[in-house]
Write a structure and sequence with these properties.
alpha+beta; Alpha-Beta Plaits; 3 domains; five-stranded antiparallel sheet; four-stranded antiparallel sheet; 64% helix; 8% strand
Length: 728
C-alpha cells in the first residue's frame, strides 16, 4: 500500500514538476514579507528560564528595588583624587546623568562635590573608605570608576538605547589621554546582539559557496546544481519567514539557522539529482528519469529528513529558550526541505537539463572497495570500533559545564579586555543579590546580621565588593557633618538614590538588599560561592526572617547547569526515536542493531576529544549530540535502503555492500562533506561556543561518514542482514 502511494506521488510529480516548482517560487512572497520584521535579541530575558520559580523570585526582587543593572566606566590615572581627574569624572558624569535610561551616576567626583562644601580635608575622608574602595577607586590607587545605575528597561530596545547612549557619552568625554573601559550585563547582551548581527551577514555567503562547490563536484551538472540550490533557497527563506512570523527573534544561537539549514537541506536534493542523472543516462527521458528517481528515493529521503528533524526537535527539552527555538525551527526547516526537494528539484531539472545533454555514468566510487574490505575484516573493524566507543565513554566522566558568558567572546575582543581590566584593577562586573525580609521592628537586628554576612563573604577571593544598606547609610557616620542636609535634593547627593535601592518597607515588613560584586569565575567556583552565601545567610539571619539569593548571574548559572541534563535527555530522546524509526522503516531488528554502533561512536568520540582538550559544555556545544545523531542517521538510512534492495535482489554480502556504495557512496560522501563544511564555517563566529559547536559538529559529521563507510558494512555482515546469519 505504501509502495503504491509512493509510485502515485512519483508519477504525479513527474507530470506536474515544472508547475510545482513555479508554485513554490511564487509562494516566497509570504515569507519574504515577514522577514522585514526580523530582529536580534540577546537580552537576559531570552536566555533565562522565565517559567521557573527562581525567575519569579528575581522578578519580586526587581519590584522591590528596581533594576539591578549597572555599567561601570573605568580608566587608569596617576591620582583619582586630583583636580584633573575629578574634572574628567564630572564631565563624564554630567553626560551620563542626562541620559533618559540612567537613574543615577556615582563617582568620587560626586562625593567630592558633596563633601567639599563642609570639609576642606575631604580627600583624607574619602581615601580608604570602604564604600569607595574596589568600586570607585582601585586598590592600587591608580584606577577610577564611574558607575551608571540603569533604570529598569522597558523592553529590549530600551536597554540597547541605554548602552548606545552611554558608549556615545564616553566617546565624547575628555579623557585626558586615558583609555576608558566599560563593563556591565546590559553591555554584554548588547555586544552579543552586535556579534549575532555580524554573524548573520557572514555565515550564509560561506554556506552558499561551500554548497555550490560541493554540488559541482558530486553532480557535475549546472542544471542539477541550480535545481538543488533553488530548493535549498526556498526552504531557508520559508523557515526564517515562519520564525519571524511566530514572533521569535534571532540570537547568538538561532542566527546560525539559515546557514545550517542551507547545507543540511542539500542532502535530499543531492540524492534526487544524482539518481536522476543516472537514470537519464540509461533511459534518455527526463520524465521517466524523474519518476524512477522519486520511486526509489521518496521513502529514504523522507525518513532521513525525519530523523534529522527529530535530532533537532529533541532540543525542545531544554529550558534555555534559544536552544529550544534553534532546535524546533531547524527541525521545521528540515521537514519543509523534503517537500521542496520533491517539488522543486525535479521541476528545475526538467526545465533546465538540455535534451541532448546525456549524463556520462559516474565511475564506481572508491568507497565500494573500502566496503568490501570492511566486510572481509569485520571482526577487526568491530573490535576497534567497540574499543574506541568504550574509551570515549570513560573520558566523558571528566565533562564539565561552563556558565561564564564572558568566555563566549574571543580572547582579543574589546569587551573581554575591558572586563579583564575592570575585574583585575577595580571591581566585579556582575553581582549576586541577597534579599532578606523580616519584621520592621527588628530592622536593626536584621541590618547587623546583614553586615555579618557581608564581612564573611567579602574575604573570599571571588568577591570584589559587598554593598548593602548599612555600608551606604554609614559611609561617613564617624564624620561630624550634616551629610543628608535638608534642602539637598537626591540629584545633588549621589548616596540618597542609592539608599532606596537597598531598603524596602511595606506594611509591617522591612527588606534589605546586599549586592555581592563578583569577578569572572568557572561554574564550579560560582556554585561553591553560591553554596557558601546560602549557608552563611541561613546561619546569621534571624529565624523569623526569610531570604533569597538571586540576580542575573545566579539565574544564568542555574540555566547553564541544566545543560548536562538537556544533553542526556535530548540525546536519549533523539537516539531512541531515530533508531526506532530505522527499525520500523527497514522492518528489521537486526538493521536496528547494525545502526547503533556507527551512529553512537562519532558522538562519544567527539565528546571524548572535547574532554581531553578541556572544552566545556555550554549553551551551544550541548546541542552537538542530538543534532549529530539526527544528521548521521541520514547516511545510515540511504546505505541500508540500497543494501536491502541489493540483498533481496539475490546478491551476497560482499557484492551487496559493494553495489550499495557504488550507487550511494558518492552521494553519502558529498552530503557528509557539505554538512561538515556548513558547520565548520561557524568558526567564523564572534562567539567561542558557536565556534566550538561548528567545529566539533563538523568533525562529528566526518566521523559519522566514517562510521557508515567503515563500521556499518562490518555490522551488516556480522548480523547477516537480510540473509543467513553466517553468510559472508
Amino acid at each position: 500500500m505504501i509502495r503504491r502511494f509512493e509510485e502515485k506521488v512519483a508519477r504525479l510529480v513527474a507530470r506536474r514538476c515544472r508547475l510545482l516548482a513555479l508554485a513554490c517560487a511564487v509562494s516566497l512572497v509570504c515569507p519574504i514579507y515577514c522577514l522585514k520584521d526580523t530582529r536580534i535579541d540577546n537580552s537576559k530575558e531570552v536566555w533565562l528560564d522565565t517559567g521557573g520559580e527562581s525567575y519569579s523570585r528575581y522578578v519580586e526582587f526587581l519590584e522591590k528595588y528596581g533594576n539591578e543593572e549597572f555599567i561601570i566606566i573605568a580608566a587608569e590615572t596617576e591620582d583619582p583624587y586630583s583636580d584633573e581627574c575629578l574634572s574628567i569624572q564630572r564631565e563624564l558624569g554630567g553626560r551620563l546623568g542626562v541620559i533618559e535610561e540612567v537613574e543615577n551616576v556615582f563617582s568620587v567626583a560626586e562625593a567630592a562635590d558633596l563633601l567639599a562644601d563642609f570639609r576642606s580635608d575631604w580627600r583624607e575622608l574619602v581615601r580608604g573608605r570602604d564604600l569607595f574602595e574596589n568600586l570607585l577607586v582601585g586598590r592600587d590607587g591608580k584606577v577610577f570608576g564611574v558607575v551608571a545605575w540603569l533604570k529598569r528597561a522597558e523592553g529590549v530596545e530600551s536597554r540597547k538605547r541605554a548602552v548606545e547612549r552611554i558608549e556615545s557619552a564616553v566617546a565624547e568625554s575628555r579623557g585626558g589621554g586615558a583609555e576608558f573601559h566599560l563593563a556591565g550585563s546590559a553591555l554584554m547582551h548588547t555586544s552579543l546582539d552586535r556579534g549575532s548581527l555580524k554573524a548573520s551577514r557572514r555565515f550564509l555567503p560561506f554556506a552558499i559557496v561551500i554548497s555550490v562547490v560541493c554540488l559541482g563536484f558530486v553532480l557535475r551538472s549546472v542544471s542539477a546544481v541550480a535545481a538543488v540550490m533553488c530548493s535549498v533557497g526556498v526552504t531557508t527563506i520559508w523557515t526564517m519567514g515562519l520564525l519571524v512570523a511566530a514572533g521569535k527573534t534571532l540570537n547568538m544561537i538561532t542566527v546560525a539557522v539559515p546557514s545550517i539549514l542551507f547545507v543540511l537541506s542539500v542532502s535530499g536534493g543531492i540524492h534526487i539529482a544524482s539518481r536522476f542523472l543516472s537514470f537519464l543516462s540509461v533511459s534518455g527521458s527526463r520524465g521517466r528519469a524523474i519518476e524512477e528517481s522519486l520511486k526509489e528515493l521518496i521513502r529514504p529521503v523522507f525518513l532521513s529528513n525525519v530523523t534529522t528533524a527529530v535530532g533537532f526537535a529533541s532540543l525542545s527539552v531544554s529550558h534555555m529558550q534559544p536552544v529550544k527555538e534553534f532546535g524546533l525551527f531547524t527541525a521545521l526547516g528540515i521537514l519543509l526541505s523534503f517537500g521542496f526537494n520533491i517539488a522543486i528539484v525535479p521541476g528545475v531539472l526538467h526545465a533546465l537539463h538540455c535534451r541532448g545533454a546525456a549524463h556520462r555514468p559516474a565511475e564506481a566510487h572508491w568507497t565500494a572497495v573500502v566496503g568490501r574490505a570492511m566486510v572481509r575484516n569485520k571482526g577487526t573493524v568491530l573490535g576497534i570500533g567497540v574499543g574506541v566507543f568504550l574509551c570515549s565513554i570513560i573520558l566523558l566522566s571528566g565533562a564539565k559545564v561552563e556558565s561564564n558568558v564572558l568566555r563566549f567572546f574571543r580572547e582579543d575582543s574589546k569587551i573581554r579586555r575591558d572586563y579583564k581590566f575592570i575585574a583585575e584593577r577595580l571591581t566585579g562586573c556582575q553581582s549576586v543579590e541577597v534579599d532578606v525580609t523580616g519584621d520592621a521592628a527588628g530592622g536593626a537586628a536584621l541590618l547587623k546580621a546583614l553586615d555579618r554576612l557581608g564581612e564573611s563573604i567579602r574575604g573570599r577571593e571571588e568577591v570584589a565588593k559587598v554593598i548593602h544598606y548599612g555600608k551606604l547609610a554609614g559611609a561617613f557616620k564617624d564624620v561630624p557633618m550634616p551629610l543628608f542636609v535638608a534642602g539637598r535634593s537626591g540629584g545633588d547627593n549621589a548616596l540618597k538614590p542609592m539608599l532606596s535601592r537597598y531598603r524596602h518597607k511595606e506594611g509591617g515588613l522591612i527588606s534589605l538588599r546586599m549586592s555581592v560584586l563578583i569577578r569572572a569565575m568557572s561554574s564550579r567556583d560560582f556554585d561553591s560561592l553560591l553554596d557558601y552565601i546560602e549557608q552563611e545567610a541561613s546561619r546569621v539571619f534571624p529565624a523569623d526572617s526569610t531570604h533569597v539569593v538571586t540576580g542575573v548571574a545566579s539565574l544564568t548559572n542555574e540555566s547553564q547547569q541544566s545543560l548536562i541534563d538537556t544533553q542526556i535527555r535530548s540525546l536519549a530522546l533523539a537516539g531512541g526515536l531515530i533508531l526506532l524509526l530505522i527499525w520500523l522503516f527497514m522492518w528489521s531488528f537486526r538493521a536496528f542493531l547494525a545502526a547503533v554502533l556507527p551512529n553512537l561512536i562519532p558522538i562519544f568520540f567527539v565528546f571524548g576529544i572535547m574532554v581531553v582538550f578541556g572544552i566545556a559544555f555550554d549553551a551551544a556545544t550541548v546541542m552537538i549530540a542530538s543534532i549529530a545523531i539526527g544528521i548521521a542517521a541520514d547516511d545510515t538510512i540511504h546505505f541500508l535502503s540500497h543494501f536491502k534492495s541489493e540483498r533481496l535482489g539475490g546478491f551476497g554480502m560482499v557484492d551487496a555492500v559493494s553495489n550499495t556504495l557504488e550507487k550511494a557512496g558518492r552521494a553519502i560522501t558529498y552530503t557528509s562533506v557539505v554538512a561538515a563544511g556548513g558547520f565548520i564555517i561557524l568558526i567564523l563566529a564572534e562567539f567561542q561556543p558557536i565556534q566550538y559547536f561548528g567545529l566539533f559538529t563538523g568533525i562529528t559529521m566526518i566521523m559519522a561518514w566514517a562510521g557508515d563507510i567503515f563500521i556499518l558494512p562490518a555490522c551488516a555482515a556480522r548480523l547477516g542482514l537480510w540473509g543467513k546469519r553466517r553468510e559472508q
